[in-house]
Specification:
Chain A: Residues 1-127, 154-217 form the Exoribonuclease phosphorolytic domain. Chain A: This is Ribosomal RNA-processing protein 43. The complex is a heterodimer of chains A (237) and B (219). With 237 residues, chain A is of the alpha+beta class. Chain A has helices at residues 61-77, 109-123, 173-178, 206-234; strands spanning 8-14, 17-28, 39-45, 86-88, 92-104, 125-131, 138-147, 155-162, 166-169, 181-187, 193-197. Chain A is 28% helix and 35% strand. In chain A, the strands form 3 sheets. In chain A, strands 1, 2, 3, 4 and 5 form a 5-stranded mixed beta sheet that branches. Chain A has a 4-stranded antiparallel beta sheet with strand order 9-8-10-11. A two-stranded antiparallel sheet of chain A has the order 6-7. Chain B has a 6-stranded mixed beta sheet, with helices on one face. The chains are: A alpha+beta (237), B alpha+beta (219).
């Protein structure tokens, strides 16, 4: 709830890496071929404020690749089912614009972004929208607000690879620059893999992969506990 | 050369490859997997712009052009995957302060596009004669709703599958260079797909050898 003008927001700090996510909800007509689905549009921005290597201008490759990764995580984990965002079949649906902005880049952007997105979505309060039968117009009831139905809680764990011998969890920017590769594993609470993202870099054997996955599953439990604690402390009593 | 590959229980679609078909790039290759085809052109090592040059190694740039429309966020993310995979195999330290550009054009997409791009990229690197420390190949696995693993899925099979995993496997000890997944799967299923992909990689590398041998035996 850090941003008061957004429908949901969260600020996450992983060491020095600071990421803020703001979710804005708007109404739109659903697409013709999927009339019962809403939209979720994630966008990751790496402004020049977060690190000196990012210049201002159109989004660079890292920002675009991160946006695609977040979109894939949402889709793969089914954390928000798009059918839940539909208000009236074929006429009205919610569009959730999720803006993830990095304020301080000290490595491990993907973990922090996924975490911020999850926390912000849990924080979202959507007003109840009904369609008036007679006039056909939508009526927004700002007094009555519901939370989003979040089905799965994906958590990302990133590792930096050094010459296929060493694996470091949660790398800082310095470690990432010196690393010869990275792996990011996204797990959900059932121990299923939502995403295994290894964009090139040094080769890994199957056994090392298995190591990473087991570590990612343990980390998931710790992170889930933290999220639940924070959400509980926010709900007004 | 078209080859029908049968890898025990997992079938791969017929492959076909042509090397050195373009005259301007230093290396070019077109790779066909069933109906999916990608054309790759490689320029390099060439002079780099001062802003882009790296002092100790070659700077690699990958451009992926889709069949229709302008490149979007998905193409950028795939470019990043391809670039980092190629950077891991190219011995860039032998050519410092140079630029290597790899341009891929999607000619037709009938499933397993990313692995076709990876294969075309590797063939283009071979055709250009760049120093590599290993070869790599791309394999796509689709996990069907009933749990069976399909290698090299068609577009239809990809839509019906509940998870699609793409691996780039290196030729030294079949290690994994790149992984990307779509949809969720359990840990055991991922390990099974990885094992199947590593087996398929052996047949693909044999195909690479045969293509290159055929090219140089003619000229």
């Amino acid at each position: 709830g850090s941003i008061t003008t957004a429908d949901g927001s969260a600020l996450v700090k992983l060491g020095n890496t600071t990421v803020i996510c703001g979710v804005k909800a708007e109404l739109a007509a659903p697409a013709v071929d999927s009339a019962n689905k809403g939209y979720i549009v994630p966008n990751v921005e790496l402004p020049s404020l977060c690190a000196e290597r990012f210049r201002s201008g159109p989004p660079g490759e890292e920002a675009q690749a991160a946006s695609q990764f977040i979109a894939d995580v949402i889709e793969n984990s089914q954390m928000i089912v798009k059918e839940d965002l539909c208000i009236a079949n074929g006429k009205l649906a919610w569009v959730l614009y999720c803006d993830i902005i990095c304020l301080d880049y000290d490595g491990n952007l993907l973990d922090a972004s996924v975490f911020a997105l999850l926390a912000a979505l849990k924080n979202v309060q959507l007003p109840l929208v009904t369609i008036n039968e007679e006039t056909g117009l939508s009526e927004v009831n700002l007094k009555q607000k519901n939370s989003l139905i979040i089905r799965k809680h994906p958590v990302a764990t990133s590792f930096a690879i050094f010459d296929d011998t060493l694996l470091i969890v949660d790398p800082t920017a310095e470690e990432e620059d010196l690393a010869t590769g990275t792996v990011t594993i996204v797990t959900d609470e059932e121990g299923r893999l939502c995403s295994v993202h290894k964009p090139g870099g040094s080769p890994l054997t199957g056994a090392k992969f298995q190591d990473c996955i087991t570590r990612a599953i343990t980390r998931h439990k710790e992170v889930k506990k933290l999220i639940d604690k924070v959400i509980k402390s926010l709900t007004p009593k | 050369m078209a080859v029908e590959l049968d890898n025990g229980q997992c079938r791969l679609r017929p492959f076909s490859c042509e090397l050195g078909l373009l005259s301007r790039p230093d290396g070019s290759a077109t790779f066909l997997q069933g109906d999916t085809s990608v054309l790759a052109g490689l320029y390099g090592p060439a002079e780099a712009k001062v802003s882009k040059e790296l002092p100790d190694r070659a700077a690699l740039e990958v451009l992926l052009r889709p069949k229709v429309g302008l490149p979007g966020v998905l193409e950028r993310s795939r470019e990043q995957l391809l670039r980092q995979t190629c950077e891991a195999v190219i011995l860039g330290v032998l050519h410092p302060r140079t630029a290597i550009s790899l341009v891929l054009q999607v000619l037709s997409d009938a499933g397993s596009l990313l692995s076709c791009c990876l294969n075309a990229a590797c063939m283009a690197l071979l055709d250009a004669g760049l120093p590599l420390n290993a070869l790599f190949c791309g394999v796509t696995c689709a996990l069907q709703p009933d749990g069976t693993i399909l290698l090299d899925p068609t577009a239809r099979q990809e839509q019906e599958a509940r998870a699609i995993l793409t691996f780039a496997i290196a030729s030294n000890e079949r290690k994994v260079l790149m992984t990307t997944t779509k949809g969720s799967c359990s840990v055991e299923e991922m390990q099974q797909c990885l094992a199947a992909a590593q087996r398929a990689a052996t047949t693909i590398f044999q195909f690479y050898r045969d293509s290159v041998r055929r090219r140089y035996s003619k000229s």
